[in-house]
Specification:
about 200 residues, alpha+beta, Beta Polymerase, domain 2, about 55% helix
Length: about 200
């Protein structure tokens, strides 16, 4: 993948992120105008580095070029949506699925079915029809939706992945798993309390 190829992909990857952010912002503003609650706390975006894209192509035994990168790597562009409550996560998923022109290419619910290490999040990859100068380019993007607590845990676990020769690694992994379970319980408890509060408000 030559540098010029990567620069060409950046235009499309930045474009698909801007497209998704615009759609999400319109929905959020629409909800606010209609006195509805915004389920999104904040959004983070990122684009894979050239080295990361090359490494993933090699790992999949695929040709290292722009065409293959844009057609076979679904998470070259990514958005992480952070919510306060578990119900908000599923509300965002529902909102995204209402865009009929977005094609779902991959969907994994790690909240209901956590990874063995305790990781929880909702992943959904879309093929987005990106209109550039009258030409439609199908571009992939991965969207991760999780609660603030899930994101806090994932950031620490991600940091550990890039550390080498960690002392007491097995113990740390056990503690992370225990924390993941505790965070999951806390998320459920906070959701329950919120539901109770809303129930009381409705009776007033």
């Amino acid at each position: 993948m030559q540098d010029s190829f990567y620069k060409g992909s950046i235009v499309l990857l930045e474009g698909v992120i801007a497209e998704m952010m615009a759609r999400l912002n319109i929905i959020r503003k629409y909800k606010m105008v209609h006195n509805d609650r915004d389920p999104i706390s904040y959004i983070i975006s990122r684009i894979k580095t050239e080295d990361s894209m090359k490494e993933k192509l090699r790992r999949k035994n695929l040709p290292v070029n722009l065409k293959t990168a844009l057609s076979q790597i679904y998470d070259a562009a990514g958005i992480r949506i952070i919510c306060s409550y578990i119900d908000d996560v599923y509300a965002v998923v529902k909102m995204l699925k209402q865009f009929k022109d977005l094609k779902i290419v991959s969907e994994k619910d790690y909240i209901k079915h956590p990874k063995t290490n305790g990781y929880r999040s909702y992943h959904i990859s879309f093929q987005v029809p990106l209109d550039i100068a009258g030409h439609i380019h199908p571009v992939y993007i991965e969207v991760q939706i999780r609660t603030i607590a899930m994101d806090f845990w994932a950031s620490l676990e991600h940091e550990m992945q890039y550390k080498k020769n960690i002392k007491n690694q097995e113990l740390i992994e056990e503690e992370l798993k225990r924390c993941a379970d505790e965070i999951a319980t806390t998320d459920i408890n906070m959701q329950t309390i919120r539901n109770m509060i809303n129930g009381k408000e409705e009776k007033k």
